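User: Working on a comparison across species. This one is Sigma-70 family RNA polymerase sigma factor from Mesorhizobium cantuariense. Can you predict its structure so I can line it up against the others?
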Amino acid sequence: MDEKKAAILGEIPRLRRYARSLLRDRDAADDLVQDCLERALVRLDNWQTGESPRRWLFTIMHHLFIDQMRKVNRRGEAAMLPLEAGEAVARPAEQVESIASREIIDALQAISPDRRAALVMVAIEGFSYAEAANILGVPAGTLMSRIARGREELRGLLDDTARRRAIRIVEK
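Assistant: Here's the predicted structure for Sigma-70 family RNA polymerase sigma factor from Mesorhizobium cantuariense:
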C-alpha cells in the first residue's frame, strides 16, 4: 500500500503542471490536484499494481476537470470581486518569465479547453496519441484533429501577438 502511495506522490509535479495548463488560476489548479489525489486515494484499489499510476491519475483529473466545467456552464461564470484600494498589496514577482514564454502560455490559455487538453497531453506530458485519447475518452482520430486544430489556432494567435508587438515597437 505504501508503494502505491509513494508512486502517486511522485506524479504530483506532472499533475500540477497539467492542472495549471487546464486552469489559468494557480489556486484552482491546486484544488483540482487535491481533488484528484483525494479521489485516487479513496479508490486506490482500482489501480493495478505494477503499472505506473500516471495514466490512471490523469484520467481521474480529466474527468474532474470536465465535471467542474459542466458545473461552471450550468451556474454561469464565477465573478471576481474587485479589491478595495486598501486591500491591494504589491509584492515582487515570484518567478521571472520571458515575454515569449508568457505569450505562449497566454495563447495556450486562449484556445478551447478540448484542444488545450489534447495538446498538453501529447506535446508536454509525452503521452502517445492512443494513451491521450484513452485518458480524454475520445477516439484517436478526434484527438489528432483537436491537436491539429489547436496547433493551427496557436500559430495564428502567436503570429498575431508578434505582429502587435512589432507595431508597438515601430510606433514608439
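For your comparison, note: Residues 107 and 157 are 6 Å apart (CA to CA).

User: Helpful, thanks.
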